[in-house]
Amino acid sequence: MRSVAVRVASEAAEFVRHRRATVDWTASVRTKSSETDPVTLVDTDCERLVRRRLASLRPGDGVLGEEEGETGSSEVRWVIDPIDGTVNFVYGIPAYAVSVAAQVDGQTVAGAVADVAADRVFSAASGAGATVREANGLQRPLACNPVSDTRLALVATGFAYSTVRRERQAQLVAQLLPRVRDVRRIGSAALDLCGVAEGRVDAQYEHGLGPWDWAAGELIAREAGAVVVLPGADARSPDGRLIAAMAPGIADEFGQLLTEIGAMAPIPG
């Protein structure tokens, strides 16, 4: 399943790179949950490509995608995000990814996240560790930073498209910022989770993500040693529940900090 995830995510990332460089995809930008939540023709075409490849490589498996919902039913379900970080994609900011994960009974057992612009592919399988394949083809294992003091932690987060939820998220950042090294808003939850896995950030938290946003990334972070808080396998964005990934040396302290500022509670929106 890991090799399938890597293969499909890599092919999809190449498709996205080619389409952004050669096709007038801007003519088909539309919105989803709000005027600030875009989806492009490349999102939908990429998801269809991934679905076709999975149907060929894993016939009979179920698929849950961000753009076209859930199809099929089996013990194995593939959870896919054709472009995680669509706003970045639209603006040409090089931080967007393809995420492909395999779940068994709601638990992610294998997954890959392809960093499209950087041509890097993160992957993991349960109990087998996490790796990244660099653009030059070299592969190396991933491990979280050995940070042990939350005050020195670099933390990634993201914000919802709902103005109600975003206001509460801003309040949480205001409480968190004086108590950590700094905060980053990269714009792709999948890449944030992979960032925890490779030590580019020390922790990540966000409310209201769909399973397509985190299914592959949380496994990659966990297999790199991170302590992960999940909202439940079938939680959808409207639930507003928390997902977090923390380097093991700060997991207890950072988790307590999230509790103190009220971040463990769902944020309706």
UniProtKB/TrEMBL annotation:
InterPro entries: Inositol_monoP_metal-BS, Inositol_monophosphatase-like, Inositol_monophosphatase_CS. Keywords: Hydrolase, Magnesium, Metal-binding. SUPFAM superfamilies: Carbohydrate phosphatase. Gene3D superfamilies: 3.40.190.80, Fructose-1,6-Bisphosphatase, subunit A, domain 1. It catalyses: a myo-inositol phosphate + H2O = myo-inositol + phosphate. PROSITE patterns: IMP_1, IMP_2. Its EC number is 3.1.3.25. PANTHER family: INOSITOL MONOPHOSPHATASE, INOSITOL-1-MONOPHOSPHATASE-RELATED. This is inositol-phosphate phosphatase. It comes from Mycobacteroides saopaulense.
